[in-house]
Structure formats: structure tokens, C-alpha cells
Amino acid sequence: MIEQLKLYDVKSPKVRLGNEWDGGYVVPQLILDSSAALFSYGVGSDISFEIDYVRKTNKPSFSYDHTVEGAGIPHDLQNLMMFKKEGLSYQKETDLDTFFTHYEQSGIKEKVFLKMDIEGAEFPFFLNCDMKRLSEIVVGIVVEFHPVANPRLLQDYFDSLKKINDYFYHCHIHCNNYGGSSSYSEYNIEITLPHIIEMTFINKSLVSTNQSVYSKLFNLFKIAEKIELDMNDYPNPEFDRKNDLNKPEHSLSFIKLINKL
């Protein structure tokens, strides 16, 4: 199952959006350039990521959270930032609705960027979602998975990754040090797997298009037809930050071992 954590180099510069601590995430610039809007779920009281997206792209964001009354949108961005007190599910519920419904309600017709930090509800969402349909709308996904210490949730986690990886490349990983970690063994590899894992995915069709552009612009070298695995060190000191400033980062040295499988 850990092969689902393989990490890929998608040949796009990365940027950090949001806080320099908890609430910030790292994404390829290609996602920002290719998305017409951001759909963000579970914003709570922190919309630093959403504000950065809007300021950097001048594109709208649609935020959803059924646990808070509002999002504290800055006055100068109220024409581009929308909030609805409603959560995310794979089906319509009392205070929840589907991404597809929210997308249709927004009036956006182009492809969008999806972010979620929904405290475990990501598992039923991905396990029941029509991923092919999602991939036709979404160019990138940022998601914080919680907590994968529970054996049932760990299985849900890997099953969710398998569904996502059919249509998206995993292109950045960071682990939230507010959570703990547990030993995990597979393929004769013993790792310490953090319980809260932040992951970024980019649509595979977008990457193949990007590679074609690179091939045309830079004829001096050849972009491999098969996308390359990312063998850089993680956490990435250029972009990643501690969620809890008073605790050490979780090690992600095991990613290189998984990439060699």
C-alpha cells in the first residue's frame, strides 16, 4: 500500500500559500495558472491560504465550512471571496453538500483547484467520489489527511490515495507535527508514518501538457516520456514550515525508499 505515497517531479516551480506555520500548503505554480477558481473546505477561522490564492491569481475563491458562521474575508477581497456555511460530503445532508453541487452553484465553467482540511471527512468523500468526473473539473488537490493512526482509517487512507492516483500525480508532501506517528512495515521497509499528512496532487493531463510545452521550449534536453520520481529531501526547507513551531518536524526520509520500489 505504501507505493501509493510515491512522489513525482511535475516540472513546475512550487509556491507556498497561507501561513508560515499551520494553515500553509505548497503547490505547483502550474495549478495556480491553470485553475479558474479555488474551492476550499474546512476553513475554520484561518483563510490565509485562500487570501494568498486570490491575491496571487486575481481569481475567485469559494470557501465552505458548516462549523463556523463566517470566514473574516478582507474588505478589499469581498468581490472575489465567497463563504457558505455548509460542509463537504459525497451526498446531500442537512448541513453538507457535494463538491459537484457547489461547483454548479458557483457559475464557474472552467477547471478549478480543490483544497480540503475536513478532519477525517476526506475519507468517505474520496472513497465514494466519482474520481473520473472530479478529474474533469479539478486541476489540483491539496488535502490534509487525519489521523492515520487508526487501523481502519489507515486502510481508508491508502484506498483513497489509490483512487486519487488514478487521475492525479502526488507532487508534494509535508506532515503536520501537531499529530504523532506510528511504526509501519511493508515490502521489508520499516517506516515511522506520521498521523496527519498534508499532500498535494496535480491532474495527470495537466502534467503531460506541461511536459509537451517544456519539450518545445527547451529542445536542448529531452523531457522523459515517463514522469520522473522526486528524489529531493522532504520536508523541503525552501517551502515547508513547522505547523507547531515548538516541535520538531516529522522525518520524511522514507519517501526516497518508497520511490525506489
Describe this structure in words.
With 261 residues, this protein is of the alpha/beta class. It is built from eight helices and 13 strands. The strands form four sheets. It has a seven-stranded mixed beta sheet with strand order 5-4-3-8-9-13-10, sandwiched between helices. The protein has a two-stranded antiparallel sheet with strand order 1-2. The protein has a two-stranded parallel ribbon with strand order 6-7. A hairpin with a 7-residue loop joins strand 1 and strand 2. The chain is globular and about 50 Å long. The termini are close together. About 5% of the residues have low confidence.
Short description:
Helices cover 27% and strands 25% of the residues. It is built from 8 helices and 13 strands.
Strand-residue fraction? 15-25%
Helix percentage range: 25-40%
Sequence of secondary-structure elements: EEHEHEEEEHEHHEHEEEEHH
> Termini, distance in Å?
11 Å
Unreliable stretches covering 5 or more consecutive residues: 212-225
Please state the CA-atom Rg, rounded to the nearest Å: 18 Å
β-strand number = 13
Number of helices: 8
- Report the major sheet: 7 strands, mixed
Q: Tell me, rounded to a whole number, the average pLDDT.
A: 92
Widest sheet, order of strands:
5-4-3-8-9-13-10
How would you classify the helix and strand content by structural class?
A: alpha/beta
Shape: globular
List keywords for this structure.
single chain, 261 residues, alpha/beta, seven-stranded mixed sheet, two-stranded antiparallel ribbon, 8 helices, 25% strand
